[in-house]
Write a structure and sequence with these properties.
By secondary structure, the chain is α/β, with parallel strands linked by helices. Helices cover 58% and strands 11% of the residues. It contains 17 helices and eight strands. Helix 4 packs across helix 16 and helix 13 runs parallel beside helix 14.
Length: 410
């Protein structure tokens, strides 16, 4: 078994072996640009408008810069080339059909079908064990919001509050929710049949409770003997460590395997702004240290209960990833334990991904794909994240520069 002390996230030769000189220079240019807040803010404002109004060369510019860095392609066929390249370096893939915010029953049915197509494709590829879905891809936001509000107006366990909320709906909305449940069921059923894990993305706090309840219901159905369905737990929320423990208790009582993808979070600024505007306590941790503390505690809890919890350590934090390997070693468990997986976003933290893969860990890149106009919201979050997360862009740039210098010495 590989020992954790042999893993170095500073090894840039391993981290960037899959990039040629031209690709490395392009990544350097992009992260250098994202290190300029004024440029990022300008891009965040102008890009959605340019896409909407079909400004000349907009798509070409996006495709050759930020899209190429963070997205697999516009189609599954394009994305397959990226997945094949990653496979050469023992890196797996989480496929994400990156379409967001389209409402209407026709769009919901289309999203369900696309998710099932992704599962069918993934099943033909040895290095694609997971795919990702968003419940907002096939459920009306307003309906989720109404269910969440009803759940929060009642007391008891998550499932008790969920049942109360569903009963509070009118006849038409009950039928609408039934269609949502069926879409989720069909996607998870396809995942179970094809042996592809279904990762359910986290949403905003004001719609998250029904998403959690629906996901746990799917786990109770499909996770009896292996982990098929995974919930995403955002540890930048101050209540999520307890939620992980409560979910584990539910899994123990109902005898299913809890699938838990641990992330820090993606909606911090939006969450805090809404809490301030509507004058309720912020659901977000008071500081980064609190998020880090709860994240690492969640990792430890998962490893301590590894027979009942299948965990995906989805983190760009070097310490959290290394901690996971150390906890496994302390328990005498293999780094490639069937219930432990690591993941980072495509285009970021290659030093973590490829060095973990080199050490024998199960590790993947979260690889979105879809038409440029549809993945713009995802791309905007990546640009914002890299400009706002303290040290992230600087770390990426430093590692790229180190590798460029190393290659020039040959």
């Amino acid at each position: 078994m590989s020992q954790p002390q042999t893993i170095s996230f500073d090894n840039t030769e391993v981290a960037f072996a899959y990039k040629n000189k031209k690709q490395l220079k392009k990544a350097h240019f992009l992260f250098n640009s994202m290190g300029k807040p004024w440029l990022v803010n300008f891009g965040l404002k102008i890009t959605p408008v340019a896409i909407k109004w079909h400004f000349p060369f907009t798509k070409t510019l996006i495709r050759n810069t930020i899209f190429q860095q963070f997205v697999g392609g516009e189609t599954l066929e394009e994305t397959a080339k990226v997945a094949d390249k990653l496979e050469e370096y023992k890196v797996q893939v989480i496929l994400d059909y990156g379409v967001e915010g389209k409402e209407g029953e026709d769009n919901f049915e289309h999203a369900r079908d696309e998710f099932k197509k992704v599962i069918a494709y993934a099943a033909t590829q040895a290095n694609i064990p997971f795919m990702s879905i968003k419940v907002t891809g096939f459920a009306r936001f307003g309906l989720l919001e109404k269910l969440d509000a009803a759940m929060n107006s009642s007391t008891g366990t998550l499932m008790k509050r969920y049942l109360y909320a569903v009963e509070s709906l009118g006849a038409e909305e009950k039928e609408e929710w039934h269609r949502v449940r069926l879409r989720m069921l069909h996607v998870c059923e396809a995942g179970a049949e094809k042996n592809i894990g279904v990762l359910v993305d986290a949403e905003e706090t004001w719609i998250q409770d029904p998403v959690d309840a629906l996901t746990i219901l799917m786990m109770d159905t499909f996770n009896k003997t292996k982990a098929v369905v995974y919930n995403t737990i955002q540890l930048y929320r101050h209540d999520r460590l307890q939620f992980l423990k409560d979910s584990h208790e539910a899994a123990r009582e109902r005898n299913f395997i809890l699938g838990a993808k641990l992330v820090r979070g993606a909606y911090m600024e939006k969450e805090r702004a809404r809490a301030t505007a509507m004058e309720y306590p912020s659901p977000i941790q008071p500081n980064k240290e609190s998020s880090d503390r709860d994240y690492n505690a969640a990792v430890e809890f998962a490893v301590d209960n590894i027979e009942r919890i299948a965990v995906i350590v989805a983190s760009h934090n070097e310490y959290s990833n290394l901690l996971t390997t150390q906890l496994l070693a302390k328990k005498g468990l293999s780094l490639n334990h069937v219930h432990v997986h690591f993941s980072q976003l495509y285009g970021m933290s290659d030093n973590i991904t490829f060095n973990l893969a080199g050490a024998g860990c199960h590790v993947s890149k979260y690889l979105p794909f879809g038409p440029i106009k549809d993945v713009v919201p995802y791309l905007m979050r990546r640009a914002q994240e890299n400009s706002s997360v303290a040290g992230q862009t600087g770390r990426e740039l430093g590692l790229i520069k180190k590798e460029m210098q190393r290659r020039s010495l040959k």
